[in-house]
Amino acid sequence: MGYHLKSRRMVYGLTLFFIALTGFAQMPIFKRYYIADIPGLGWLAQFYVTHAIHYALAALLMGFCAYVALDYFFARRHGSTTKFKMTENTKISASAQVKIAALCGLIITGIFMVVKNLSGVYFSHGVVIGLDLLHLLFCMVLLGATAYTWVRRRTWIL
Amino acid sequence: MHSPISRRHFLKTSFFAAGTAISGAGIAKAAAPADADKEPLVTLIDISRCIGCEECVYACKDANAHKFPEPEKPFPKMYPDRVPVEDWSDRREVADRLTPYNWLYIQYASATTKAGEKITLTIPRRCMHCQNPPCVKLCPWGAAKQEKNGLSRIDAQICLGGSKCNKVCPWDIPQRQTGTGLYLDLLPAFAGNGVMYKCDRCYQKIEKGEQPACIEACPEDVQTIGKRSDIIKMAKDLAKEMDGYIYGLDENGGTNTIYVSPVPFDQLVYDTGDGKPHMHAVKDTMADGSNLSIAMAIAPVAGAAAAVGKFYRQMKEEA
After folding, report:
1. Rounded-to-integer distance, Cα A77 and Cα A90, Å
2. How far apart are CA B74 and CA B131, in angstroms?
3. Inter-chain contact B299–A123, Cβ cutoff 8 Å?
4. Does B300 contact A66 at a Cβ distance shorter than 8 Å?
5. pLDDT, tens digit (0-9, with 9 covering 90-100), for A67-90
6. How far from each other are the two terminal CA atoms of chain A, in whole angstroms?
7. What is the least distance, in Å, from the CA of B111 to any CA of chain A?
8. pLDDT, tens digit, for every residue of B215-224?
9. Alpha carbon separation from A11 to A18, A22, B35 (Å, rounded)
10. Please, what is the end-to-end C-alpha distance for chain B in angstroms?
11. Is B295 exposed, middle or buried (0-12, 13-18, 19+ CB in 10 A)?
12. Complex ipTM, two decimals?
């Protein structure tokens, strides 16, 4: 695996870890269950801090996804110059398809949740609850699929 | 008392809501900006007129008594032990602070006028009904809601009592009652802790075209409610007339409750603490999120540009 792909995996892995952590920190659970009492983790109980970090990481994740998606598109059409060669026969694995679907769901519901949080924007109560639940559902699907691919050593592309 | 909402009903409602949310059309419809002809309602509170008679406090209790919690006892054991039991059900008569059974109280403040006279002011205190309320926007469960008329309220049938709304509220307004609400039907030992309560500006009366109980009951006409633009003008005129000061217009990015006082708010001396909110200047707590949303709009474009740039360099090298 080339340096380029290694650094990609590292950026994605760290972003996914911290965005999930700050996402769960939106629920008042880390203080209740002493996690925020662990030295260095007190910030997990500060809702505005975790909220801002979650937003910043969401921006990073969206930028990263846009980069990787377009890069994949170009590489598949024209062949990659990195050590990992891609051709038109290169395919996305089934587990990666699940992860991509979950990421798309997270990004779409996340965008609506960000818009909802702007001043002067009113969403109906049912939509707000729906967005909250769907965002959580997509998160669980992504984490589940990520855990599966990690344990079974599945790759994104075949 | 168990919440009247059953787990099955809640799940059904949730899945229905989720279905609605997934439909783009539903979201687009729901995400309407505040209608220009439906300006938010704002309350003007002229502190100089308040005599502290507490008519508003008891009118609030009467008008909202049917919404007050009737918790089941004994409360389920909650884990870990640090989870606090907050029970006001045996102290319903408490009226000198905010509680789940007292959504409005009179705060006593001492001050010195410009003429050097020492005075005591009485200030009706309750939810400020922020224009961009963090209690509503940051509720992880969607239990709080904001209506187009500017009021924010907590749905007692959905709230799990995690108290995040209290922590993110600059004035710590919402108050918790343990032993009531949906959490009893889910995992009462491990998640949730009751229901949060606060002023909902008598939404049931406003829906009928009536005024909130506290405004109706006031013998001194301390409070006036009306369209935001009208009330802001009225507040500024009143402040000019009494050479006074305004609170709530800019606090937390703007609220739908505006106080006018004859003395500066930072010179008022009053008790603060649990259920007794301050009157300090408050920065816009939602501003960081709003600013970061711009970064979110730019990030995918930057990511796409980086990929195109990389592709362009590769093509150039190959040529």
Report:
1. 10
2. 39
3. no
4. yes
5. 999 998 888 877 665 556 677 777
6. 14
7. 34
8. 999 999 999 9
9. 11, 16, 43
10. 76
11. middle
12. 0.90
